[in-house]
Amino acid sequence: MLRDITLGQYYKAESPIHRLDPRTKLAATFAYLISLFLFKNPFVYMIAGGVLVCVIIASRVPVRYMLKGMKSVIFILLFTMLMSLFFTKGTVIWSFWKLRITKEGLSQSAYTGLRITMLILGSNILTLTTTPTRLTNALERVMSPLKIFRVPAHEIAMMMSIALRFIPILLEETDRIMKAQLARGADFESGNLFKKVKSLIPVLIPLFVAAFRRANDLAMAMEARCYHGGKGRTQMKPLKYARRDAAAYCLLIMYMALMIVTGLTLKSTPKTEALPAVSTNMISVSSDTLR
Amino acid sequence: MAESGFRGLIADHLVYEYNKESSQRLRALDDVSFTIRQGEFVGLIGHTGSGKSTLVQMLNALMKPDSGTVYYDGRDVFEKDYDRKALRGKVGEVFQYPEHQLFADTVFEEVCFGPRNMGMDRKQTELSAYAAIKKVGLPDECFDQSPFDLSGGQRRRVAIASVLAMKPELLILDEPTAGLDPLGRLELLDMITELNRDSAMSVLLVSHSMEDVAAYASRILVLDKGRLIYDDTPAEVFAHYEELQKLGLAAPEMTYVMNGLKAAGMDVDTSALTPDEAEESILRALRLC
What we know:
Helix content of chain A is 67%, strand content 3%. With 291 residues, chain A is mainly alpha-helical. A two-stranded antiparallel ribbon of chain A has the order 1-2. Chain B has 11 helices and 10 strands. Chain B has helices at 52-59, 84-90, 107-117, 122-135, 152-164, 182-198, 210-216, 234-239, 241-246, 253-263, 275-288; strands at 8-18, 26-37, 41-46, 67-72, 75-76, 91-94, 170-174, 202-207, 219-224, 227-232. Chain B has a 6-stranded mixed β-sheet with strand order 6-7-8-3-9-10, with helices on both faces. The longest helix of chain B is centred in the middle third of the chain and has 17 residues, at 182-198.
Protein backbone atom coordinates (compact mmCIF):
# COMPACT_ATOMS: atom_id res chain seq x y z
CA MET A 1 0.00 0.00 0.00
CA LEU A 2 2.35 2.67 1.25
CA ARG A 3 5.43 0.71 0.42
CA ASP A 4 5.67 2.32 -3.00
CA ILE A 5 6.60 5.72 -1.67
CA THR A 6 10.31 6.27 -2.01
CA LEU A 7 11.65 8.74 0.49
CA GLY A 8 15.23 8.84 1.52
CA GLN A 9 15.40 6.72 -1.59
CA TYR A 10 18.85 5.17 -1.36
CA TYR A 11 19.54 2.66 -4.14
CA LYS A 12 22.12 0.13 -3.08
CA ALA A 13 24.74 -0.57 -5.71
CA GLU A 14 28.49 -0.76 -6.18
CA SER A 15 29.63 2.19 -8.23
CA PRO A 16 32.31 4.89 -8.24
CA ILE A 17 29.61 7.45 -7.44
CA HIS A 18 28.43 5.45 -4.43
CA ARG A 19 31.98 5.22 -3.10
CA LEU A 20 32.67 8.95 -3.24
CA ASP A 21 32.82 10.86 0.01
CA PRO A 22 29.39 12.38 0.69
CA ARG A 23 30.98 15.84 1.07
CA THR A 24 32.34 15.56 -2.46
CA LYS A 25 28.92 14.61 -3.73
CA LEU A 26 27.30 17.40 -1.80
CA ALA A 27 29.72 19.96 -3.20
CA ALA A 28 29.36 18.56 -6.70
CA THR A 29 25.58 18.66 -6.52
CA PHE A 30 25.60 22.26 -5.37
CA ALA A 31 28.08 23.25 -8.05
CA TYR A 32 26.02 21.46 -10.66
CA LEU A 33 22.80 23.15 -9.59
CA ILE A 34 24.49 26.56 -9.69
CA SER A 35 26.02 25.80 -13.08
CA LEU A 36 22.55 25.19 -14.48
CA PHE A 37 21.58 28.78 -13.74
CA LEU A 38 24.71 30.54 -14.91
CA PHE A 39 24.04 30.75 -18.61
CA LYS A 40 21.18 30.28 -20.99
CA ASN A 41 22.81 28.82 -23.97
CA PRO A 42 22.19 25.55 -25.84
CA PHE A 43 25.87 24.52 -25.74
CA VAL A 44 26.03 24.93 -21.98
CA TYR A 45 22.96 22.78 -21.65
CA MET A 46 24.42 20.15 -23.92
CA ILE A 47 27.49 19.93 -21.67
CA ALA A 48 25.38 19.82 -18.52
CA GLY A 49 23.10 17.17 -20.00
CA GLY A 50 26.04 15.11 -21.24
CA VAL A 51 27.70 15.20 -17.84
CA LEU A 52 24.44 14.22 -16.19
CA VAL A 53 24.02 11.23 -18.49
CA CYS A 54 27.62 10.15 -17.80
CA VAL A 55 27.12 10.39 -14.04
CA ILE A 56 23.82 8.48 -14.20
CA ILE A 57 25.52 5.70 -16.16
CA ALA A 58 28.46 5.68 -13.75
CA SER A 59 26.12 5.49 -10.74
CA ARG A 60 24.61 2.18 -11.94
CA VAL A 61 21.18 3.25 -10.76
CA PRO A 62 18.57 1.98 -13.27
CA VAL A 63 17.16 4.81 -15.35
CA ARG A 64 13.66 3.58 -14.57
CA TYR A 65 14.36 4.12 -10.88
CA MET A 66 15.79 7.53 -11.62
CA LEU A 67 12.74 8.67 -13.55
CA LYS A 68 10.46 7.51 -10.75
CA GLY A 69 11.67 10.55 -8.80
CA MET A 70 10.43 12.77 -11.63
CA LYS A 71 6.86 11.58 -11.28
CA SER A 72 6.15 13.74 -8.26
CA VAL A 73 7.25 16.94 -9.96
CA ILE A 74 5.77 16.30 -13.38
CA PHE A 75 2.84 18.59 -12.64
CA ILE A 76 5.00 21.53 -11.59
CA LEU A 77 7.22 20.89 -14.57
CA LEU A 78 4.39 20.93 -17.07
CA PHE A 79 2.74 23.90 -15.39
CA THR A 80 5.89 26.03 -15.53
CA MET A 81 6.56 25.02 -19.09
CA LEU A 82 3.03 25.93 -20.19
CA MET A 83 3.24 29.22 -18.31
CA SER A 84 6.37 30.30 -20.05
CA LEU A 85 5.09 28.97 -23.36
CA PHE A 86 1.95 31.12 -23.36
CA PHE A 87 2.94 34.17 -21.36
CA THR A 88 6.29 35.20 -22.76
CA LYS A 89 6.09 38.32 -24.89
CA GLY A 90 7.81 38.45 -28.26
CA THR A 91 7.28 37.53 -31.88
CA VAL A 92 3.99 35.72 -32.20
CA ILE A 93 4.19 32.56 -34.27
CA TRP A 94 0.84 30.98 -33.42
CA SER A 95 -2.26 32.31 -31.79
CA PHE A 96 -5.71 31.04 -30.92
CA TRP A 97 -8.34 32.99 -28.96
CA LYS A 98 -6.35 34.57 -26.14
CA LEU A 99 -3.47 32.13 -26.28
CA ARG A 100 -0.35 33.18 -28.10
CA ILE A 101 2.83 31.27 -28.60
CA THR A 102 5.88 33.36 -29.25
CA LYS A 103 9.28 32.37 -30.51
CA GLU A 104 10.79 33.52 -27.25
CA GLY A 105 8.14 31.65 -25.28
CA LEU A 106 9.00 28.46 -27.08
CA SER A 107 12.68 28.67 -26.23
CA GLN A 108 11.93 29.90 -22.72
CA SER A 109 9.66 26.95 -22.15
CA ALA A 110 12.25 24.50 -23.44
CA TYR A 111 14.94 26.00 -21.22
CA THR A 112 12.73 25.94 -18.14
CA GLY A 113 11.77 22.34 -18.77
CA LEU A 114 15.34 21.23 -19.27
CA ARG A 115 16.52 23.18 -16.28
CA ILE A 116 13.99 21.70 -13.87
CA THR A 117 14.49 18.19 -15.21
CA MET A 118 18.26 18.37 -14.82
CA LEU A 119 17.88 20.03 -11.43
CA ILE A 120 15.74 17.21 -10.09
CA LEU A 121 17.78 14.44 -11.70
CA GLY A 122 21.00 16.01 -10.45
CA SER A 123 19.85 16.17 -6.87
CA ASN A 124 18.27 12.71 -7.16
CA ILE A 125 21.67 11.25 -7.94
CA LEU A 126 22.88 12.54 -4.60
CA THR A 127 20.07 10.96 -2.59
CA LEU A 128 20.03 7.75 -4.61
CA THR A 129 23.72 7.06 -4.16
CA THR A 130 24.21 8.29 -0.58
CA THR A 131 22.69 6.76 2.52
CA PRO A 132 20.84 9.28 4.69
CA THR A 133 23.32 8.65 7.49
CA ARG A 134 26.31 9.56 5.33
CA LEU A 135 24.48 12.55 3.96
CA THR A 136 23.68 14.04 7.35
CA ASN A 137 27.20 13.20 8.42
CA ALA A 138 28.49 15.26 5.55
CA LEU A 139 26.10 18.11 6.40
CA GLU A 140 27.35 18.09 9.96
CA ARG A 141 30.92 18.39 8.79
CA VAL A 142 30.09 21.12 6.31
CA MET A 143 28.19 23.05 8.98
CA SER A 144 30.77 22.55 11.72
CA PRO A 145 32.64 25.83 11.05
CA LEU A 146 29.39 27.55 12.02
CA LYS A 147 29.87 26.31 15.56
CA ILE A 148 31.80 29.51 16.22
CA PHE A 149 28.53 31.33 15.77
CA ARG A 150 26.90 28.92 18.21
CA VAL A 151 25.06 27.05 15.50
CA PRO A 152 24.43 23.58 16.99
CA ALA A 153 25.66 21.75 13.90
CA HIS A 154 25.75 18.34 15.52
CA GLU A 155 22.28 18.65 17.01
CA ILE A 156 20.82 19.81 13.72
CA ALA A 157 22.41 16.89 11.91
CA MET A 158 21.21 14.49 14.61
CA MET A 159 17.67 15.79 14.37
CA MET A 160 17.77 15.46 10.61
CA SER A 161 19.00 11.91 10.71
CA ILE A 162 16.43 10.93 13.33
CA ALA A 163 13.68 12.54 11.28
CA LEU A 164 14.87 10.74 8.15
CA ARG A 165 15.11 7.47 10.06
CA PHE A 166 11.58 7.86 11.37
CA ILE A 167 9.95 8.43 8.01
CA PRO A 168 10.09 4.79 6.89
CA ILE A 169 9.30 3.58 10.42
CA LEU A 170 6.19 5.72 10.63
CA LEU A 171 5.16 4.76 7.11
CA GLU A 172 5.44 1.12 8.08
CA GLU A 173 3.49 1.80 11.25
CA THR A 174 0.77 3.56 9.23
CA ASP A 175 0.63 0.63 6.87
CA ARG A 176 0.31 -1.80 9.75
CA ILE A 177 -2.39 0.20 11.54
CA MET A 178 -4.35 0.67 8.32
CA LYS A 179 -4.26 -3.05 7.72
CA ALA A 180 -5.31 -3.78 11.29
CA GLN A 181 -8.30 -1.46 10.91
CA LEU A 182 -9.12 -2.85 7.48
CA ALA A 183 -9.17 -6.27 9.13
CA ARG A 184 -11.80 -4.85 11.48
CA GLY A 185 -13.90 -3.78 8.54
CA ALA A 186 -12.77 -0.17 8.25
CA ASP A 187 -13.30 1.44 4.87
CA PHE A 188 -10.96 4.21 3.72
CA GLU A 189 -12.15 4.55 0.17
CA SER A 190 -15.89 4.91 -0.14
CA GLY A 191 -18.08 7.80 1.00
CA ASN A 192 -17.78 11.54 0.62
CA LEU A 193 -14.84 13.65 1.74
CA PHE A 194 -16.20 14.15 5.25
CA LYS A 195 -16.69 10.41 5.67
CA LYS A 196 -13.23 9.69 4.34
CA VAL A 197 -11.59 12.11 6.76
CA LYS A 198 -13.59 10.62 9.60
CA SER A 199 -12.54 7.13 8.61
CA LEU A 200 -8.91 8.15 9.18
CA ILE A 201 -9.41 8.75 12.89
CA PRO A 202 -8.87 5.06 13.74
CA VAL A 203 -5.53 5.35 11.91
CA LEU A 204 -4.35 8.74 13.14
CA ILE A 205 -4.88 8.20 16.86
CA PRO A 206 -2.89 4.97 17.08
CA LEU A 207 -0.27 6.53 14.79
CA PHE A 208 0.24 9.49 17.11
CA VAL A 209 0.35 7.20 20.12
CA ALA A 210 2.96 5.10 18.32
CA ALA A 211 5.04 8.14 17.34
CA PHE A 212 5.17 9.38 20.92
CA ARG A 213 5.93 5.90 22.22
CA ARG A 214 8.79 5.55 19.78
CA ALA A 215 10.16 9.00 20.51
CA ASN A 216 10.08 8.19 24.22
CA ASP A 217 11.81 4.86 23.72
CA LEU A 218 14.46 6.45 21.57
CA ALA A 219 15.14 9.24 24.06
CA MET A 220 15.41 6.67 26.84
CA ALA A 221 17.77 4.48 24.81
CA MET A 222 19.95 7.47 23.93
CA GLU A 223 20.15 8.57 27.54
CA ALA A 224 20.90 5.04 28.69
CA ARG A 225 23.94 5.20 26.42
CA CYS A 226 24.96 8.54 27.90
CA TYR A 227 24.26 10.60 24.82
CA HIS A 228 24.99 14.23 25.62
CA GLY A 229 25.21 15.98 22.30
CA GLY A 230 28.09 16.61 19.99
CA LYS A 231 30.85 17.74 22.33
CA GLY A 232 33.83 15.43 22.26
CA ARG A 233 31.92 12.85 20.28
CA THR A 234 33.83 10.65 17.85
CA GLN A 235 32.45 8.69 14.95
CA MET A 236 32.59 5.03 14.13
CA LYS A 237 33.10 5.71 10.46
CA PRO A 238 34.65 9.17 10.19
CA LEU A 239 34.51 10.72 6.75
CA LYS A 240 37.82 10.54 4.98
CA TYR A 241 38.73 11.96 1.63
CA ALA A 242 40.33 9.45 -0.70
CA ARG A 243 42.25 9.89 -3.91
CA ARG A 244 39.08 9.38 -5.94
CA ASP A 245 37.60 12.42 -4.21
CA ALA A 246 40.53 14.54 -5.34
CA ALA A 247 39.96 13.26 -8.85
CA ALA A 248 36.27 14.08 -8.55
CA TYR A 249 37.03 17.62 -7.41
CA CYS A 250 39.40 18.05 -10.37
CA LEU A 251 36.68 16.88 -12.75
CA LEU A 252 34.24 19.22 -11.05
CA ILE A 253 36.53 22.23 -11.49
CA MET A 254 37.13 21.28 -15.09
CA TYR A 255 33.41 21.02 -15.65
CA MET A 256 32.73 24.40 -14.09
CA ALA A 257 35.52 26.00 -16.12
CA LEU A 258 34.18 24.44 -19.31
CA MET A 259 30.70 25.69 -18.53
CA ILE A 260 31.89 29.23 -17.87
CA VAL A 261 34.10 29.37 -20.92
CA THR A 262 31.38 27.98 -23.17
CA GLY A 263 28.81 30.27 -21.66
CA LEU A 264 30.96 33.36 -22.17
CA THR A 265 32.30 32.65 -25.64
CA LEU A 266 29.46 30.98 -27.48
CA LYS A 267 26.47 33.24 -27.41
CA SER A 268 24.07 31.78 -29.89
CA THR A 269 20.82 33.28 -28.70
CA PRO A 270 20.24 36.83 -27.57
CA LYS A 271 19.08 36.94 -23.98
CA THR A 272 15.38 37.34 -23.57
CA GLU A 273 14.68 40.05 -21.08
CA ALA A 274 10.94 39.82 -21.01
CA LEU A 275 10.18 37.37 -18.31
CA PRO A 276 6.58 36.75 -17.37
CA ALA A 277 5.55 38.03 -14.00
CA VAL A 278 3.33 35.03 -13.37
CA SER A 279 5.92 32.36 -13.76
CA THR A 280 8.51 34.19 -11.70
CA ASN A 281 6.06 34.18 -8.85
CA MET A 282 5.18 30.58 -9.32
CA ILE A 283 8.57 29.04 -9.55
CA SER A 284 11.16 31.42 -8.34
CA VAL A 285 14.04 28.99 -8.74
CA SER A 286 13.52 28.61 -12.43
CA SER A 287 13.64 32.24 -13.39
CA ASP A 288 15.18 34.35 -10.66
CA THR A 289 18.76 33.72 -11.53
CA LEU A 290 18.21 34.58 -15.16
CA ARG A 291 18.27 38.29 -14.55
CA MET B 1 -13.08 -22.52 -8.80
CA ALA B 2 -12.76 -24.99 -5.99
CA GLU B 3 -15.47 -27.51 -5.14
CA SER B 4 -18.44 -25.40 -4.14
CA GLY B 5 -19.44 -27.48 -1.13
CA PHE B 6 -16.14 -26.89 0.66
CA ARG B 7 -16.36 -24.92 3.89
CA GLY B 8 -13.18 -23.24 4.95
CA LEU B 9 -10.11 -21.74 3.42
CA ILE B 10 -7.79 -22.88 0.66
CA ALA B 11 -4.47 -21.23 -0.04
CA ASP B 12 -3.55 -22.10 -3.59
CA HIS B 13 0.10 -21.78 -4.72
CA LEU B 14 0.75 -18.40 -3.13
CA VAL B 15 3.85 -16.53 -4.28
CA TYR B 16 4.95 -13.12 -3.11
CA GLU B 17 8.09 -11.06 -3.53
CA TYR B 18 9.15 -7.89 -1.71
CA ASN B 19 11.14 -5.08 -3.34
CA LYS B 20 10.26 -6.27 -6.81
CA GLU B 21 11.73 -3.17 -8.40
CA SER B 22 14.92 -2.70 -6.48
CA SER B 23 18.22 -4.49 -6.22
CA GLN B 24 17.24 -6.21 -2.96
CA ARG B 25 14.55 -8.63 -4.10
CA LEU B 26 13.23 -10.89 -1.45
CA ARG B 27 10.99 -13.88 -2.00
CA ALA B 28 8.68 -13.91 1.00
CA LEU B 29 6.39 -16.71 -0.12
CA ASP B 30 7.29 -19.46 -2.52
CA ASP B 31 4.45 -21.66 -3.75
CA VAL B 32 2.54 -22.10 -0.50
CA SER B 33 -0.63 -24.24 -0.55
CA PHE B 34 -2.76 -25.62 2.26
CA THR B 35 -6.35 -25.85 3.47
CA ILE B 36 -8.06 -25.01 6.74
CA ARG B 37 -11.37 -26.79 7.17
CA GLN B 38 -14.22 -25.31 9.16
CA GLY B 39 -13.65 -26.02 12.86
CA GLU B 40 -9.96 -26.92 12.65
CA PHE B 41 -7.27 -25.61 15.00
CA VAL B 42 -4.12 -25.14 12.96
CA GLY B 43 -0.74 -23.89 14.13
CA LEU B 44 1.64 -21.99 11.86
CA ILE B 45 5.25 -21.84 12.93
CA GLY B 46 8.32 -20.40 11.34
CA HIS B 47 11.39 -18.38 12.07
CA THR B 48 11.33 -14.58 12.07
CA GLY B 49 11.23 -13.55 8.42
CA SER B 50 9.93 -16.89 7.21
CA GLY B 51 6.91 -15.21 5.63
CA LYS B 52 4.31 -15.97 8.32
CA SER B 53 2.97 -12.44 8.60
CA THR B 54 2.90 -11.98 4.84
CA LEU B 55 0.99 -15.22 4.49
CA VAL B 56 -1.69 -14.41 7.05
CA GLN B 57 -2.31 -11.01 5.47
CA MET B 58 -3.21 -12.78 2.24
CA LEU B 59 -5.73 -15.03 3.91
CA ASN B 60 -8.10 -12.11 4.49
CA ALA B 61 -7.17 -10.31 1.28
CA LEU B 62 -5.17 -7.49 2.85
CA MET B 63 -2.32 -8.33 0.51
CA LYS B 64 -2.58 -9.65 -2.99
CA PRO B 65 -0.20 -12.46 -3.93
CA ASP B 66 1.94 -12.07 -7.04
CA SER B 67 0.52 -15.37 -8.23
CA GLY B 68 -1.76 -17.99 -6.77
CA THR B 69 -4.92 -17.19 -4.88
CA VAL B 70 -7.01 -17.80 -1.78
CA TYR B 71 -10.42 -19.46 -1.81
CA TYR B 72 -12.87 -19.00 1.02
CA ASP B 73 -15.92 -21.26 1.08
CA GLY B 74 -15.12 -22.11 -2.51
CA ARG B 75 -14.88 -18.55 -3.86
CA ASP B 76 -11.77 -16.76 -5.06
CA VAL B 77 -11.33 -13.82 -2.66
CA PHE B 78 -9.31 -11.80 -5.17
CA GLU B 79 -12.09 -11.87 -7.75
CA LYS B 80 -13.14 -8.41 -8.81
CA ASP B 81 -16.65 -8.38 -7.35
CA TYR B 82 -15.85 -10.35 -4.19
CA ASP B 83 -16.95 -8.57 -1.01
CA ARG B 84 -13.63 -8.39 0.79
CA LYS B 85 -15.04 -6.35 3.65
CA ALA B 86 -17.43 -9.15 4.50
CA LEU B 87 -14.57 -11.62 4.16
CA ARG B 88 -12.64 -9.76 6.84
CA GLY B 89 -15.60 -10.26 9.14
CA LYS B 90 -15.58 -13.99 8.45
CA VAL B 91 -11.80 -14.34 8.56
CA GLY B 92 -11.00 -12.28 11.64
CA GLU B 93 -7.38 -11.38 12.02
CA VAL B 94 -5.66 -10.32 15.21
CA PHE B 95 -2.35 -8.71 14.30
CA GLN B 96 0.89 -8.78 16.22
CA TYR B 97 0.73 -6.40 19.16
CA PRO B 98 -2.95 -5.68 18.43
CA GLU B 99 -3.12 -3.29 21.39
CA HIS B 100 -1.37 -0.73 19.16
CA GLN B 101 -4.46 -0.37 16.98
CA LEU B 102 -6.76 0.91 19.74
CA PHE B 103 -8.24 4.37 19.23
CA ALA B 104 -11.70 4.76 20.77
CA ASP B 105 -12.73 6.65 23.92
CA THR B 106 -14.04 3.63 25.75
CA VAL B 107 -13.44 -0.09 25.64
CA PHE B 108 -17.04 -0.69 24.62
CA GLU B 109 -16.81 1.77 21.70
CA GLU B 110 -13.58 0.12 20.62
CA VAL B 111 -15.14 -3.31 20.47
CA CYS B 112 -18.24 -1.98 18.68
CA PHE B 113 -16.09 -0.68 15.81
CA GLY B 114 -15.74 -4.03 14.05
CA PRO B 115 -19.35 -5.27 14.15
CA ARG B 116 -20.63 -1.80 13.19
CA ASN B 117 -18.39 -1.82 10.14
CA MET B 118 -19.79 -5.22 9.28
CA GLY B 119 -23.21 -3.59 9.00
CA MET B 120 -24.82 -5.05 12.12
CA ASP B 121 -27.58 -2.89 13.58
CA ARG B 122 -27.15 -1.18 16.92
CA LYS B 123 -28.68 -3.90 19.04
CA GLN B 124 -26.70 -6.67 17.38
CA THR B 125 -23.51 -4.63 17.58
CA GLU B 126 -23.84 -3.97 21.27
CA LEU B 127 -24.87 -7.52 22.07
CA SER B 128 -21.96 -9.05 20.24
CA ALA B 129 -19.54 -6.47 21.67
CA TYR B 130 -20.78 -7.28 25.17
CA ALA B 131 -20.43 -11.01 24.56
CA ALA B 132 -16.92 -10.57 23.15
CA ILE B 133 -15.70 -8.47 26.09
CA LYS B 134 -17.09 -11.04 28.49
CA LYS B 135 -15.52 -13.84 26.49
CA VAL B 136 -12.00 -12.43 26.78
CA GLY B 137 -12.48 -12.16 30.53
CA LEU B 138 -12.46 -8.43 31.10
CA PRO B 139 -14.29 -7.20 34.21
CA ASP B 140 -17.47 -5.13 33.93
CA GLU B 141 -15.90 -1.92 35.22
CA CYS B 142 -13.67 -1.85 32.11
CA PHE B 143 -16.54 -1.11 29.73
CA ASP B 144 -16.48 2.66 30.10
CA GLN B 145 -12.77 3.04 30.71
CA SER B 146 -10.42 4.40 28.09
CA PRO B 147 -8.48 1.52 26.53
CA PHE B 148 -5.31 3.58 27.07
CA ASP B 149 -5.78 3.38 30.84
CA LEU B 150 -5.68 -0.42 30.91
CA SER B 151 -2.65 -2.62 31.44
CA GLY B 152 -0.84 -4.10 28.45
CA GLY B 153 -2.43 -7.51 28.89
CA GLN B 154 -5.90 -6.06 29.22
CA ARG B 155 -5.41 -3.89 26.17
CA ARG B 156 -4.51 -6.99 24.19
CA ARG B 157 -7.76 -8.62 25.34
CA VAL B 158 -9.70 -5.57 24.19
CA ALA B 159 -8.08 -5.81 20.78
CA ILE B 160 -8.88 -9.50 20.52
CA ALA B 161 -12.45 -8.85 21.67
CA SER B 162 -12.78 -6.23 18.93
CA VAL B 163 -12.12 -8.92 16.35
CA LEU B 164 -14.23 -11.57 18.10
CA ALA B 165 -17.18 -9.18 18.12
CA MET B 166 -17.40 -9.50 14.34
CA LYS B 167 -18.21 -13.19 14.93
CA PRO B 168 -15.55 -14.59 12.61
CA GLU B 169 -15.73 -18.16 11.33
CA LEU B 170 -11.95 -18.38 11.14
CA LEU B 171 -9.83 -16.56 13.69
CA ILE B 172 -6.22 -15.82 12.77
CA LEU B 173 -3.94 -14.82 15.62
CA ASP B 174 -0.45 -13.56 14.81
CA GLU B 175 1.79 -14.12 17.85
CA PRO B 176 -1.05 -13.42 20.29
CA THR B 177 1.02 -14.31 23.34
CA ALA B 178 4.10 -12.18 22.58
CA GLY B 179 4.99 -10.11 25.61
CA LEU B 180 2.39 -11.65 27.92
CA ASP B 181 3.24 -13.16 31.28
CA PRO B 182 2.97 -16.98 31.61
CA LEU B 183 -0.44 -16.89 33.27
CA GLY B 184 -1.85 -14.42 30.75
CA ARG B 185 -0.52 -16.65 28.00
CA LEU B 186 -2.22 -19.75 29.34
CA GLU B 187 -5.51 -17.93 29.87
CA LEU B 188 -5.46 -16.54 26.35
CA LEU B 189 -4.68 -19.90 24.75
CA ASP B 190 -7.33 -21.65 26.84
CA MET B 191 -9.87 -19.06 25.79
CA ILE B 192 -9.01 -19.63 22.13
CA THR B 193 -9.29 -23.40 22.54
CA GLU B 194 -12.67 -22.93 24.17
CA LEU B 195 -13.87 -20.81 21.26
CA ASN B 196 -12.66 -23.44 18.84
CA ARG B 197 -14.36 -26.26 20.73
CA ASP B 198 -17.64 -24.61 21.72
CA SER B 199 -18.49 -22.38 18.79
CA ALA B 200 -16.71 -24.43 16.10
CA MET B 201 -14.62 -21.41 15.15
CA SER B 202 -11.58 -22.41 13.11
CA VAL B 203 -8.33 -21.06 14.47
CA LEU B 204 -5.00 -20.37 12.83
CA LEU B 205 -2.45 -19.72 15.55
CA VAL B 206 0.78 -18.16 14.33
CA SER B 207 3.60 -18.52 16.80
CA HIS B 208 7.20 -19.34 17.21
CA SER B 209 6.57 -20.95 20.55
CA MET B 210 6.57 -24.68 19.87
CA GLU B 211 5.02 -25.44 23.26
CA ASP B 212 1.94 -23.34 22.52
CA VAL B 213 1.38 -24.76 19.09
CA ALA B 214 2.12 -28.35 20.10
CA ALA B 215 -0.31 -28.30 22.99
CA TYR B 216 -3.26 -26.68 21.23
CA ALA B 217 -3.17 -27.24 17.48
CA SER B 218 -4.39 -30.39 15.80
CA ARG B 219 -2.31 -29.69 12.72
CA ILE B 220 0.90 -27.75 12.19
CA LEU B 221 2.21 -25.85 9.19
CA VAL B 222 5.93 -25.06 9.17
CA LEU B 223 7.23 -22.23 7.00
CA ASP B 224 10.89 -21.78 6.22
CA LYS B 225 12.20 -19.02 3.94
CA GLY B 226 8.79 -18.69 2.33
CA ARG B 227 8.33 -22.39 1.63
CA LEU B 228 5.85 -24.64 3.40
CA ILE B 229 8.00 -27.57 4.50
CA TYR B 230 5.65 -29.50 6.81
CA ASP B 231 1.87 -29.78 6.99
CA ASP B 232 1.00 -32.54 9.42
CA THR B 233 -0.10 -33.49 12.93
CA PRO B 234 2.10 -32.18 15.76
CA ALA B 235 3.47 -35.65 16.51
CA GLU B 236 4.52 -36.17 12.89
CA VAL B 237 6.03 -32.71 12.54
CA PHE B 238 8.02 -32.89 15.74
CA ALA B 239 9.29 -36.35 14.84
CA HIS B 240 11.52 -34.31 12.53
CA TYR B 241 12.90 -32.42 15.49
CA GLU B 242 16.47 -32.66 14.27
CA GLU B 243 15.61 -31.11 10.90
CA LEU B 244 13.60 -28.43 12.67
CA GLN B 245 16.58 -27.58 14.79
CA LYS B 246 18.70 -27.10 11.68
CA LEU B 247 16.17 -24.48 10.55
CA GLY B 248 16.55 -22.69 13.87
CA LEU B 249 13.22 -23.98 15.16
CA ALA B 250 13.36 -26.06 18.29
CA ALA B 251 10.79 -28.78 18.97
CA PRO B 252 8.88 -28.66 22.27
CA GLU B 253 11.10 -29.43 25.24
CA MET B 254 9.28 -32.69 25.93
CA THR B 255 10.34 -34.03 22.54
CA TYR B 256 13.97 -33.67 23.59
CA VAL B 257 13.33 -35.25 26.98
CA MET B 258 11.53 -38.22 25.48
CA ASN B 259 14.07 -38.77 22.74
CA GLY B 260 16.82 -38.58 25.35
CA LEU B 261 15.10 -41.20 27.50
CA LYS B 262 14.53 -43.44 24.50
CA ALA B 263 18.19 -43.17 23.53
CA ALA B 264 19.09 -44.14 27.12
CA GLY B 265 17.12 -47.34 26.66
CA MET B 266 13.76 -46.50 28.17
CA ASP B 267 10.72 -47.59 26.17
CA VAL B 268 8.80 -44.32 26.02
CA ASP B 269 6.57 -42.75 23.40
CA THR B 270 8.61 -40.01 21.72
CA SER B 271 5.53 -38.35 20.26
CA ALA B 272 4.47 -37.03 23.67
CA LEU B 273 4.43 -33.25 23.44
CA THR B 274 3.01 -31.92 26.68
CA PRO B 275 4.30 -32.58 30.21
CA ASP B 276 1.12 -34.55 30.97
CA GLU B 277 1.53 -36.89 28.03
CA ALA B 278 5.19 -37.32 28.86
CA GLU B 279 4.46 -38.13 32.49
CA GLU B 280 1.95 -40.78 31.50
CA SER B 281 4.31 -42.36 29.01
CA ILE B 282 7.24 -42.42 31.46
CA LEU B 283 5.12 -43.92 34.23
CA ARG B 284 3.88 -46.61 31.87
CA ALA B 285 7.44 -47.43 30.84
CA LEU B 286 8.54 -47.60 34.48
CA ARG B 287 5.69 -49.93 35.43
CA LEU B 288 6.67 -52.29 32.61
CA CYS B 289 10.16 -52.84 33.91
